[in-house]
């Protein structure tokens, strides 16, 4: 069984709320205050091993992320299949809403997008198995633990996955500066929203498979938004049109 470290109070708290096996909880020696006491209380109720350690130990486990005095050793994140995401929408009696990330490489961006997606009720995220950030400690931290409540599928080929989604009745919208203004575009019904690589955008083959390309107008001197900021705007436009 594979394990990974999750750091920070909110991510660890979300792990504790979920049904994930926690091997051990590392907490900072000393006067513990605030939410850390809630974390320790839940861990004790679940008979999780709690080990008090010094700051150097936590620093070594947290890989540069802010641990806030707590690190959990947990079973590795479990990816899902595409059908699991579609079934989640069906169970909720909603049109599928999926975000496809075509080569997002920065785990901070991946975590931020997952956080927004979870808040917005997105049913699942799709990432490629190669040339992509994966769910790791940084993603847990930057998503504030939201990844624990989000279905993420890793697929061999984004183009083939888009074809499969089309066959299931979804419309594919790609974020690209050659597209139509997003707020002038109908984004209702079953939607898969494609966000491209931080520097290169959507790959050529993926772009060709999209039904519609949409853009966020740039009215200032900077020519583009961070990938996670662009994703947030487009995700909530889908929410507005479908649930507003």
Protein model, in words:
The structure is a single chain. By secondary structure, this protein is of the alpha/beta class. The protein is built from 9 helices and 10 strands. Strands 7-6-5-9-8-10 form a 6-stranded parallel beta sheet, with helices on both faces. A 4-stranded mixed beta sheet has the order 1-4-2-3. Strand 2, helix 2 and strand 3 (49-53) form a beta-alpha-beta unit. Helix 1 (9-17) packs parallel to helix 2 and helix 5 packs parallel to helix 9. The longest helix is centred in the C-terminal third of the chain and has 17 residues, at 227-243. The mean pLDDT is 92.
Primary descriptors:
24% strand, 244 residues, single chain, alpha/beta, 37% helix, 6-stranded parallel beta sheet, 4-stranded mixed beta sheet, 9 helices, 10 strands
For the termini, the CA-CA separation is 43 Å
Taken as a percent bin, the fraction of beta residues is: 15-25%
Question: How much helix, percentage-wise, in residues?
Answer: 25-40%
Let me know the average pLDDT: 92
Structural class by SSE content: alpha/beta
Low-confidence stretches: none
Please give the count of helices: 9
Radius of gyration: 19 Å
> Rough shape?
elongated
- Give, in spatial order, the strands making up the sheet with the most strands: 7-6-5-9-8-10
* Element string (H = helix, E = strand): EHEHEHEHEHEHEHEEHEH
Please report the total strand number as a whole number: 10
Tell me the major beta sheet: 6 strands, parallel
